[in-house]
């Protein structure tokens, strides 16, 4: 253990946040996006046009499932590129459109 060489890594996951070489957090945002899309797909049946849930209940689903995934370690997003944040907004907009039957 003493004087052991530590291998170099391009990214490292610590407390659920993926840190990369230059602290751009691209991998972290990609993982958050992937998780949010996963949960959105699982909730799709409850959000569809023929769903009997009220908008209030759909909003509660969003707040409980999607928003918690997207806002974990959200101070990281202050240092992220706007292009990366755009893709998170796309997910939010898709969820809102599906929940409100907007086209």
TrEMBL record:
Keyword Nucleotidyltransferase attributed: yes
Alphabetical keyword list: Nucleotidyltransferase, RNA-directed DNA polymerase, Transferase
Lineage of the species this protein comes from: Eukaryota, Metazoa, Ecdysozoa, Arthropoda, Hexapoda
Protein name as annotated: Probable RNA-directed DNA polymerase from transposon BS
Domain of life: Eukaryota
GO molecular function, one term: RNA-directed DNA polymerase activity
Gene name for this UniProt entry: RTase
